[in-house]
Amino acid sequence: MALIGYHASHEQFAPDHLLRLAVLARDAGFGALSASDHFHPWSEAQGQSGHAWTWLGAVMAQAALPTGVVTCPFGRYHPAVIAQAAATLCVLFPERFWLAVGSGEALNEHITGRAWPSKPRRNAMLRESVEIMRALWRGEEVSHRGAVTVERARLYSLPASPPPVFCAALTEATARWAGGWADGLVTVSGERAAMRARIEAFRDAAGSARPVYVQVKLAYADPQAGDEAARALAHAQWRTNLLDSADAAELAMPADFEARAAGVTLADMDRAVRISSDLGRHAAWLAEDLRMGVDALFLHNVGVNQQAFIEAFGGTVLGQLAQ
């Protein structure tokens, strides 16, 4: 049976609040957690940027659920440091942590002052970072000079088994490329044909055994408030995320995203977010996701009404999907 998880958005909510929400989600019946990893939020309206790795240790101790994070292992980080952090979580919480890696956005990675690399260069850095981390998890001493540099690094606190490394892919081309090396795929909801194309591209390259996770972007409001209330919640928090992924990766600050999203209307939000105040409609959308053979869905309600969303979906939607 597929997992239904709660997505913790660090760019939107303070880390202490997110910790309480994760425990609430567990109590409501969500079976897993995922988290974003941001230095800057997408907009001033979101206005948060808690350190995801600090939070992961706390939430995995309190909520005791399978948990993963989507991160860029180079840029403001170094793959040896990410390998160390992931190994420590795997020692503390065996078989519960997974890591999803992507090629990053300037929004988070430009802070070191280095020139922001092109997408092909970032892909090379990502691929090398994964191989560096895997070698470190095997207990090897690693020296490497390429797109990424490592000098005589070795991890001593090693888990019995390393975390699976998923690739975060927003395009069909990236998903196909990831099929050659990733342990699984993490992608996002959206237009159904595009979702299916990404999943099929990954499976064409990786085979059918490797898992596919989908981060579902949705907006929910109380049925008495109606769909327009849900749409307004989405617009207030998530309109800066309707930009083309290639363009978005180049913007450096929240103000840049806000300027580019100035013309995004309420009606535009339906392109990227599943908007409805009808829990049955949300359940039907998610059931269709599961029929695509997805292994886990991580639900990201993009509005600020997190507790209402968790309670409503826990009380109704999760039960419908389990039938």
From TrEMBL:
Keywords of the record: Oxidoreductase
Domain of life (superkingdom): Bacteria
Gene3D superfamilies: Luciferase-like domain
InterPro entries: F420-G6PD/mer (IPR050564), F420_G6P_DH-rel (IPR019945), Luciferase-like_dom (IPR011251), Luciferase-like_sf (IPR036661), Non-F420_Flavin_OxRdtase (IPR023907)
NCBIfam families on file: F420_G6P_family, flavin_revert
Pfam families: Bac_luciferase
Entry GO MF terms: oxidoreductase activity, acting on paired donors, with incorporation or reduction of molecular oxygen
All copies of domain Luciferase-like, residue ranges: 9-288
Organism of this sequence: Cupriavidus nantongensis
Protein name as catalogued: LLM class F420-dependent oxidoreductase
